[in-house]
Q: What sequence folds into this?
């Protein structure tokens, strides 16, 4: 008595077509690009009653970088090529010879994640970047990139000396410590309009 | 004779396509996970500059985009070739940025507002004048976290 009716198998040959259709829809309607960029913090608009003395930086602590409308770069009054920029910034900020005309260092006590404190000389250097309204964006990004590279390398060196690992491989707390020891101090002045673009 | 004929006709047995849907579904899921929906039409040409020290934007919903560059070819008859700022779906002037930032900020939850990032996607040949104007407006709008879009290259010395 085989009264059970055999269930017929559903023809699945069009399943592939359906899946293809969905696949093509997603291929067309979506994008894959991951957005990457150089992240920067803009300074807030200063309150109008702020006194000028509050924001004074000593001349020896300041590294002025100008980029003109012809995309030429001036570092501390001397023309420089973009490839020299990174090392110039590193040397200026680190001041390895403790030169009196280069930035001061301040011994700071930084709380470590394990509870101890680490006293480290923190450079007071400020890199000041000024560009012209006619400077090309490409050059500006290259300059920003070289500055970021200089600071990233200094952070890597500090992280390796202190924790024995690259900055990128540190935990959040340790990264915080290194960020305090090597602060990213880039200041951007209002752009000039010398080139008359 | 009959046996011979059958052998000749059979040839290579057909490949089973029963697992084809599975394969396609797998590709489909890959694309569904790794891609994001295209949400707006870009009306300016942006060839991004290259940089080595770029970082990925982590939370996409916190990011607003400002596009700066020449209008695309189909729009050049109407808008000319001077660089334009695109907010949402149309061209704008720097004066509209204040409003744009306010509306983008309203879309976010209270807790996320501080983490809002504005990404500037500008063409590499743009002059800094227009970008400085945008930056100045962003400062006024108190949207201080910005990111200059750049494609990643390897660091060269």
A:
């Amino acid at each position: 008595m085989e009264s059970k009716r055999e269930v017929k198998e559903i023809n699945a040959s069009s399943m592939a077509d359906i899946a293809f259709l969905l696949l093509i829809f997603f291929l067309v309607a979506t994008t894959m690009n991951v957005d990457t960029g150089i992240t920067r913090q803009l300074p807030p608009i200063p309150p109008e009653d702020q006194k000028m003395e509050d924001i004074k930086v000593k001349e020896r602590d300041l590294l002025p970088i100008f980029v003109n409308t012809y995309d030429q770069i001036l570092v501390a009054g001397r023309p420089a090529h973009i490839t020299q920029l990174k090392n110039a910034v590193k040397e200026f900020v680190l001041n390895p010879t403790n030169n009196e005309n280069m930035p001061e260092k301040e011994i700071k006590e930084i709380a470590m994640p394990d509870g101890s404190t680490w006293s480290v000389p923190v450079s007071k250097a400020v890199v000041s970047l000024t560009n012209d309204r006619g400077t090309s964006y490409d050059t500006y990004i290259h300059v920003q990139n070289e500055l970021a590279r200089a600071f990233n390398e200094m952070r890597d060196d500090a992280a390796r000396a202190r924790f024995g690992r690259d900055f990128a491989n540190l935990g959040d707390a340790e990264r915080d410590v290194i960020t305090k020891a090597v602060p990213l101090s880039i200041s951007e002045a209002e752009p000039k309009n010398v080139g008359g673009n | 004779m009959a046996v011979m004929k059958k052998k000749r006709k059979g040839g290579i047995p057909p490949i089973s396509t029963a697992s084809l849907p599975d394969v396609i579904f797998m590709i489909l899921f890959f694309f569904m996970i790794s891609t994001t929906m295209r949400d707006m039409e870009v009306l300016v040409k942006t060839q991004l500059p290259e940089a080595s020290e770029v970082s990925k934007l982590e939370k996409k919903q916190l990011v607003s985009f400002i596009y700066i560059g020449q209008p695309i070819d189909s729009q050049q008859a109407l808008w000319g070739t001077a660089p334009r700022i695109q907010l949402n779906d149309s061209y704008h002037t720097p004066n509209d940025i204040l409003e744009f930032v306010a509306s983008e900020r309203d879309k976010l939850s209270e807790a996320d507002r501080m983490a809002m990032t504005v990404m500037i996607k500008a063409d590499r040949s743009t002059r800094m004048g227009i970008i400085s104007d945008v930056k100045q407006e962003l400062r006024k709008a108190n949207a201080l976290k910005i990111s200059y879009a750049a494609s990643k290259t390897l660091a060269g010395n």
Summary: Chain B has a mean pLDDT of 85. The beta strands of chain B are 36-37, 44-45, 50-51, 55-56, 63-71, 84-87, 90-92, 117-122, 145-149, 151-152. The two ends of chain B are 78 Å apart (CA to CA).
